[in-house]
């Protein structure tokens, strides 16, 4: 038997291949434990697709190489040699092969590099998906119930709403997958409050979806830990608001929540799972942001600071009192050039629009959000209903909702405040946040403009220092 006659896939390997309008295949491959990603196009994608869809059998891949390659000697021998080289390259890139040693993935610098190196590759791939109008991702809010009562929470006051049943979620995932869907985010509320959460995990595996989770992790137990380990999630996001227990607990309003979350994070990291600490910066917590960065490094976690304190989904404005307005502090944060500063989950460095002719944002470009009771929205941050599952199928919404054609026509230049703004390139536009605050996704909030000006000033100071 030739050494490349079969491939053994590691359990944390996920892949999907797309064929675009030019009929050229493109494959995205994730190795979640090793935090690596590969993007293959053309013949490489066709060879990989054959191997992946056959469960590791390489006969079809060798046949494809033989039919499409150019050889100077024996076709069969050289075709196997080409395949051996292809697989060796994937192993070198940590896509195939065994798990990396714990020492290689427990360092925070490795996680930082994994996040940074993936950005350009994934952005290029996702831009292609958007250009081709491919349904790639689904955010599922499993519930609005939560065992914490955070002072800045954007969810509506009444979280006791009906939720999709397990059977409905199974059907939802099945349709999503049939439409080309691949990446799924499970969030809440607090997703671990659902008594059937382990069954929902099992459904992501059943439909071969690439899962990510967001949880406060305070309800983690041995059974849930084992299930998450078996799930091999691409990422696990956990909100930690401060390195100081009392300050964190003041945000969640639950005594002891800080200790429970940190204990859970340590257990997940000990199991080799990737955890990202998500920390919205607030008036009370922002002055101590460097302490939290140090804590993340100590735990071996990536960290994502976020400036997106928004109004509630039901237009309640109480969270806005938590926004950071101290200009000196904001300048300090911006000037630090910290590697993962974000606004509404998107890195600021990625959101700086090149020109007012740009669209408002990418809401609905490659995915949808489904709320607990089946309400379908363009994205998790834009609370506009464009359908309800299962009364409306995903296909009906994706292919026929008027929102998409209307929203895609809007340019940033159509927004009066943006049209002639000198700091437009530093703007972290989020129409969802605007809509929550003003009821309109083309009316910027004053806070958006404030942050844009602060970021522009910080950049000017940084550039001046570099020149002098």
Report on the architecture of this protein:
With 468 residues, the chain is an alpha/beta fold. It is 42% helix and 14% strand. The chain has helices at 42-53, 59-68, 75-92, 102-105, 108-131, 166-178, 197-206, 222-231, 245-252, 257-270, 289-299, 327-335, 348-351, 394-400, 402-408, 416-419, 431-438, 446-467, and strands spanning 13-19, 25-31, 36-41, 137-141, 183-187, 210-214, 235-239, 275-280, 302-306, 341-343, 346-347, 367-370, 375-377, 387-388. The chain has an eleven-stranded mixed β-sheet with strand order 11-10-9-8-7-6-5-4-12-13-14. α1 runs antiparallel to α2 and α2 (59-68) packs across α3 (75-92). It is globular, with a radius of gyration of 23 Å.
Please specify the SSE layout and strand pairing:
Blueprint: E1 13-19, E2 25-31, E3 36-41, H1 42-53, H2 59-68, H3 75-92, H4 102-105, H5 108-131, E4 137-141, H6 166-178, E5 183-187, H7 197-206, E6 210-214, H8 222-231, E7 235-239, H9 245-252, H10 257-270, E8 275-280, H11 289-299, E9 302-306, H12 327-335, E10 341-343, E11 346-347, H13 348-351, E12 367-370, E13 375-377, E14 387-388, H14 394-400, H15 402-408, H16 416-419, H17 431-438, H18 446-467
Parallel strand pairs: 4-5, 4-12, 5-6, 6-7, 7-8, 8-9, 9-10
Antiparallel strand pairs: 1-2, 2-3, 10-11, 12-13, 13-14
Helix pairs in contact: 1-2, 2-3, 6-7, 7-8, 12-18
């Amino acid at each position: 038997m030739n050494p490349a006659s079969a491939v053994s896939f590691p359990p944390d390997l996920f892949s999907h291949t797309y064929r675009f309008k030019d009929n050229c295949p493109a494959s995205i491959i994730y190795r979640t434990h090793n935090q690596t990603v590969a993007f293959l196009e053309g013949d490489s994608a066709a060879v990989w697709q054959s191997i992946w869809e056959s469960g590791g059998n390489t006969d079809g891949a060798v046949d494809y190489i033989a039919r499409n390659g150019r050889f100077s000697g024996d076709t069969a021998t050289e075709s196997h040699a080409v395949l051996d080289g292809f697989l060796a390259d994937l192993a070198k890139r940590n896509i195939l092969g065994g798990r990396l040693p714990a020492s290689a993935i427990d360092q925070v610098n490795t996680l930082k590099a994994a996040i940074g190196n993936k950005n350009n590759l994934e952005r290029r791939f996702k831009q292609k998906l958007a250009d081709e109008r491919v349904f790639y991702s689904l955010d599922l809010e499993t519930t609005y119930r939560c065992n914490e009562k955070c002072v800045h929470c954007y969810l509506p006051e009444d979280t006791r709403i009906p939720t999709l049943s397990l059977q409905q979620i199974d059907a939802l995932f099945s349709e999503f997958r049939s439409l080309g869907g691949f990446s799924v985010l499970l969030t809440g509320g607090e997703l671990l409050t659902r008594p059937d959460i382990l069954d929902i995990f099992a459904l992501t595996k059943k439909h071969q979806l690439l899962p990510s989770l967001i949880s406060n992790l305070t309800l983690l137990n041995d059974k849930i830990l084992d299930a998450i380990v078996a799930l091999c999630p691409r990422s696990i996001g956990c909100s930690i608001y401060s390195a100081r227990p009392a300050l964190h607990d003041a945000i969640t309003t639950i005594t002891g929540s800080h200790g429970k979350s940190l204990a859970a994070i340590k257990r997940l990291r000990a199991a080799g799972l990737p955890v990202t600490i998500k920390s919205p910066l607030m008036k009370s917590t922002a002055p101590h942001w460097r302490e939290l960065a140090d804590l993340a490094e100590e735990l071996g976690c990536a960290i994502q600071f976020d400036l997106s304190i928004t109004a509630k989904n039901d237009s309640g404005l109480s969270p806005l009192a938590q926004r950071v307005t101290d200009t000196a502090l904001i300048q300090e944060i911006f000037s630090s050039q910290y590697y993962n500063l974000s606004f509404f989950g998107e890195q600021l460095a990625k959101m700086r629009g090149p020109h007012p002719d740009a669209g408002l944002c990418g809401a609905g470009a490659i995915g949808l959000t489904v709320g607990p009771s089946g309400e379908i929205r363009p994205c998790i941050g834009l609370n506009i209903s464009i359908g309800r599952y299962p009364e409306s199928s995903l296909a009906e919404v994706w292919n026929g909702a008027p929102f998409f054609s209307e929203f895609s026509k809007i340019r940033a230049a159509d927004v009066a405040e943006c049209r002639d703004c000198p700091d437009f390139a530093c703007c972290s536009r989020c129409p969802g946040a605007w809509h929550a605050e003003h009821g309109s996704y083309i009316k910027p909030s004053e806070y958006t403009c404030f942050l844009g000006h602060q970021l522009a000033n910080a950049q000017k100071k940084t550039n001046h220092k570099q020149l002098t």
